[in-house]
Known about the structure:
This protein has twelve helices and eleven strands. The protein has helices spanning about 1-10, 15-45, 65-70, 80-85, 150-165, 170-175, 210-220, 240-250, 255-300, 305-310, 315-355, 365-399; strands at about 55-60, 90-95, 95-100, 100-110, 115-120, 120-125, 145-150, 180-185, 190-200, 230-235, 255. By secondary structure, it is an alpha+beta fold. The chain has two domains: about 1-50 and about 270-399, no CATH class; about 55-265, no CATH class. The strands form three sheets. Strands 5-4-8-9-7 form a five-stranded mixed beta sheet. A four-stranded antiparallel beta sheet has the order 2-10-1-11. It has a two-stranded antiparallel sheet with strand order 3-6. The protein is elongated and about 105 Å long.
Amino acid sequence: MILVWKLLRQHxxxxxxxxxxxxxxxxxxxxxxxxxxxxxxxxAFTQGDGFIKxxxxxxxxxxxxxxxxxxxxxxxxxxDIREIREQKFCKSVGxxxxxxxxxxxxxxVEGMGYMSTDMFFESVPDRFVDADTENWHFEPGDPVVPIIxxxxxxxxxxxxxxxxxxxxxxxxxxVGMVDLNVRLRGGGREEMLKGRVVGFSxxxxxxxxxxxxxxxxxxAFAPGADTAxxxxxxxxxxxxxxxxxxxxxxxxxxxxxxxxxAGRTTYFLKIVSGVVMSVGLLISVLSFYILMLSxxxxxxxNTAKLxxxxxxxxxxxxxxxxxxxxxxxxxxxxxxxxxxxxVLLRGYYLDMLLLMFPQMEVEGxxxxxxxxxxxxxxxxxxxxxxxxxxxxxxxxxKG
Length: 399
C-alpha cells in the first residue's frame, strides 16, 4: 500500500482537501455545539425547579359581576374536567382541592416573637408538584404536616415585611427549621399540629399540603362540604397551540399569561436549536460534496496509473485503499477536533449558566459525542463506498 500511495499522491490538491477539512470541521462543530447547548440549557427551563415551567397552565373560571348575580358557579364539574381532558392539546389534568375549614398558623424564630396569621391550604396530585417530594406524604396520626410555599412568598417577606419592620431575613434553609404551629378549626373540632416547610414552588402560587392530609382534614373538620375544585392545573403538549387560547376564550376560562409566554420561550428555544443544527448539517453535507469532488478529481487524474496497477494484478480493493484511508482519517481527525473545540466552548458558557442557575443539574457531553460518532461513521461509510464504486468502474472499463 505504501508504494501505491507514493504513486497516487502526486496529484493530491492540498487546498482542496484543506477546504473540505475546514468546512467539515465547522459543520460538525455547529451540529455538536447546538445539540450540547440545548442539552445544557434545557434543564434550566424544564426541570422541576427550573426557570420556566412551559407545559403547565393553571386554569380558573372567569369571575364577573354578571356571573355572580346569575349564580354561575366558579367551580369545575366533572363534566368540565372531562371536556378539558378530551382536548387535543391536553396531556393530563389535575384539580386543586381547597381546605373547607379555618386554618391559622403561628411561627417563631429565635430572637424574635411569634407571628400568627390566618391562612388556607390547597393540594394537587403529586405529579404536578415541582419541588422535592421525598418528605411529601401524610398519614392520619402523623404529628407533622409537610408544607410547600410559593417562592415569591419568601421574597415578599424578605424584601417587604421584614425590611419594613427591621426583622431578620430568612433563607430557604432557615425557613425549613422555623417552628410552625398549625391550628385547624371546623365542624365543632379544633386541633393543633406541627407544620414543616419542605420546599418551595415556582409553578404553583398557593400553600400546598399533601393530598392525603387534605382528604383527611376536610373529612374531619368540614364533613359534607363542597370540595369541587375552583382551579385546575393542565399539562399541555405545545403551549404555543392557538387552540388553547381559543378554547379558554370560548369557555370563559382564564389562565396566567406569563405561563403561555414561558411556553413560547421554551418552544422558541427548540426551534432555534433545530435551525442551528440544520445549518450545521447543511455545511457538513456541502463539505462531504467537496470531498467527493476532490476524490473524484484525484481519481480521474490518476486513471491511467490506476488502470496500470489493475493490469499488473493489484486488486480494486488495494488500489482504492489509500484514498479510503485518507478520507476516513480526515473524518476521524475532524471529529476529534470538533469534540475538543466543543469542550472549550462549553466550558466558557457553562460557567455563566451555573452562575445564573446554581441549582441546575449539568449532564456530560455524551449525547454530542454519540451524534458526532454517528456522523463520522455515516460520512466515512459513504466515502468508502463512493471510492470503491469509482475504482470498480475503472476496473470494469479496463476489462
